[in-house]
Automatic annotation (TrEMBL):
Organism, as annotated: Talaromyces pinophilus
Protein name: Uncharacterized protein
Matching InterPro entries: NAD(P)-bd_dom_sf, Sc_DH/Rdtase_CS, SDR_fam
GO molecular function, one term: oxidoreductase activity
Keyword NADP: yes
Coiled-coil annotated spans: none
Keyword Cytoplasm (UniProt): no
A Pfam family annotated for this UniProt entry: adh_short_C2
SUPFAM superfamilies: NAD(P)-binding Rossmann-fold domains
């Protein structure tokens, strides 16, 4: 097995940490040697804290949970204050909290309350987390990494003041029927990410999005309940014939937070096994 990327310390804040991609991201951070993690979620994330301790590499490893709704401005500010008060800084913020497509109604039948709820969690929540964390990161000292590679032993890499990763979706680029609230919210996540990346150049904070296709999490399991034929659709449309596992997405997130990604900013990286290349149906020919 190839060795995993190591972060050698630093403090991570993960939203949506109680389940799915967020939970897996917490475990990957622990394994990547971070010193502290704040697990933020609507639900209680204490079971994930216990699990993370099994993988933690850092001898000073510590994790705390914060329960909040990311669409609540005061709660997001309190979450960031808690992280800074407890750990002194935030080096990595991965914003995984989000909601899936809950109705499936096509455009002419779409209910405004479903749209508004999705906008509140997926757009307002992303804006609040990215903006508030940017402010906290901008006020902290930058870090450097000595000797990032044995190939260049005298090199130093500037890590800047932090790395923020948002979770968009392939739906940020391609629509799916009956998914206007989710699809438009994920387009907005890209807009937030790119603007924050641009605004944060002066602060030396990198902001990137990852764009997964189907990933086997509780969110995908809920979609399978609602749309029973989805399993067959995934098998047929995914070039690998399967959904991603959450750890495949978390590995990509670790790369974006690592000293290996210091030149990557404002990017929106697909994690789709090539799904979005195959719209013309060549994969099934
Ligand atoms: N699973 C997929 O197929 C898939 C594909 C592409 C993108 N995504 C995106 O990845 C992100 C994570 O998805 P997942 O599949 O891990 O979902 P999930 O439902 O499995 O987990 C999401 C977590 O976020 C929390 N959460 C939801 N709303 C919240 C709120 N308002 N405040 C705080 N916490 C909240 C939930 O409690 C849960 O613990 C989402 O933005 C989702 O849109 C998922």
């Amino acid at each position: 097995m190839a060795s995993k990327l190591q972060l050698e310390g630093g403090i991570a804040l993960v939203t949506g940490a109680a389940a799915g991609i967020g939970k897996e991201t917490v475990l990957a951070f622990a394994e990547a040697d971070v010193e502290g993690i704040v697990l933020a979620d609507l639900n209680d994330a204490s079971a994930v804290i216990e699990e993370s301790k099994k993988f933690a590499k850092n001898e000073n490893f510590r994790a705390i949970a914060v329960q909040l709704d990311v669409s609540d401005e005061n709660a997001v500010r309190a979450m960031v204050d808690t992280a800074v008060n407890e750990f002194g800084r935030i080096d990595y913020c991965v914003h995984c909290a989000g909601m899936g497509n809950i109705s499936g109604a096509t455009t002419e039948h779409l209910k405004i309350d479903v749209f508004d709820k999705t906008v509140a969690v997926n757009i307002r929540g992303t804006m609040l987390v990215v903006s508030t964390v940017s402010k906290a990161m901008a006020a902290q000292e930058p870090r450097t990494c000595q000797n990032p590679s044995a190939r260049n032993p005298t090199a130093t890499r500037d890590l800047g003041r932090g790395s923020i990763v948002t979770i968009a979706s392939v739906n940020a680029f391609v629509p799916a029927p009956g998914m206007m609230p989710y699809t438009s919210s994920k387009h907005a996540v890209i807009g937030i990410t790119k603007t924050a990346a641009l605004d944060n150049i002066k602060n030396h904070i990198r902001v990137n999005a990852v764009c997964p296709s189907w990933t086997d999490t509780p969110m995908m399991q809920a979609s399978l309940q609602r749309v029973p034929q989805l399993g067959h659709i995934i098998q047929k449309l995914s070039p690998l014939g399967r959904a991603a596992s959450p750890d495949e997405v978390a590995d990509y997130i670790m790369f974006l937070c690592s000293p290996s990604a210091t030149y990557i900013n404002g990017s929106c990286l697909m994690i789709d096994a090539g799904l979005t290349l195959t719209a013309h149906g060549a994969a099934s020919l």
